[in-house]
Write a structure and sequence with these properties.
134 residues; homotetramer
Chain lengths: 134, 134, 134, 134
């Protein structure tokens, strides 16, 4: 399967940006969206769903923000730096919030542990990309 | 049809927030998403599409960010203020960027004029909500 | 605010389609997305969340399908009838499924009643548009 | 990074479905969304954008439908077979339509070739999952 990095390299107007850092962030957003949506659904299937309301809530926001961030980052023609920065900052906050919440249920539920990990990786990837955007 | 304001009033755990300002922002995001998607498509149907590339580009980002902002704002159970703020800030930047670009084609194309207006209204609604979030 | 119908009328390549039926379907999708997302969130805030798992589940699918249907319908340049039909059919099924489920909680919860109504209206609007697509 | 297959295996209420076929379809949807969004953006950066209008148009629909299909498939608690089937059928049509269009520009543009491949793989994965859903 074509990697995100190969996808970006076929672009006619690549901005002067580190493709590896960008690709890693796009892939982290994609993985985090999947982990959050799966975690919402798994939480809804648990017996102690009452204890997982906050987790479901932060998962929903995080999935939405990671999806939009992935899509914005995949566009490089005349990318607007202020829009990209704002999106990455919002995504990093949503990932941190969701990771902190999921971590509280990580010992009990594998899906919360997996989701917390995906959120931390995505938060870090957003922050790394924010750094090189200057 | 039920208004957004009525929808929000049926919620069991309404946070202590001005429902009118919140509803107005949700509706402005919805209208802006529609205007941006329609503007992309209308631009693709114009003869001078070459002159509208930047417009299509900013429309796509703005539509994505308004969609996610609308969805995040519709959730009020344990809303996380930092996530809401980050999302609103990113949305306001995307709306401003798109409004500025569409305004340059507003004399030529009705859909760009309509889109610029929807973006300005949405940017203002996001900023108003940011103010009352404190 | 500009209506969806006005938006569509500013398009340079309007297909030969009844703008009123199309606009009504777009607006019904938008209202249904909002009702479903708000219903998920309101359900998560109820004490009897255990009884609402299936409702939350159908709301999530329905919100996603109404969102994509709204976006697909807003594009009229070279619209592909098979894609539009497939999308409308999937949306109508999701709306019917969600309406049936929400109707079971309609006496207990206003948000489920509102959501069931929005789903029924959207299902009907999708079916009407499917009819005129031939 | 956790694979989609591992994600699905941590779910408390796995339906009786072949996790490999399901995971492959989710991953194909994700890859196809990325290829379509990147292809829209790359097309907008090409000199012969006039020749790529139809390609951009089918990419936009296909990206939206693959995104929603990925999200619906990630939910397994009380999955509604009729909704899943309708979504997969719509997605397969969008993928076929987009693959046929992108294939026409595949010799000229690498991003169209990559996108056509991703669409074909996703169409096949949707059809395979439809088969085992019975």
């Amino acid at each position: 399967m074509t990697t995100v990095s190969e996808l970006l390299q076929s672009h006619p107007q690549r901005d002067d940006i580190d493709i590896d850092v960008l690709s890693e962030c796009i892939e982290a957003c994609s993985a985090c969206t999947q982990a959050c949506i799966a975690c919402v659904d798994a939480c809804l299937g648990e017996r102690d769903v009452d204890a997982l309301i906050e987790c479901i809530r932060t998962d929903l926001d995080c999935a939405d923000l990671c999806t939009v961030t992935e899509h914005v980052l995949l566009r490089m023609t005349h990318a607007n730096v202020a829009v990209v920065r704002g999106t990455l900052e919002a995504c990093a906050v949503a990932c941190k919030t969701c990771a902190d919440e999921c971590a509280q249920h990580a010992e009990m539920h594998q899906h919360c542990r997996t989701c917390a990990d995906a959120c931390r990786r995505c938060e870090a990837a957003c922050n790394r990309l924010l750094e090189i955007l200057g």
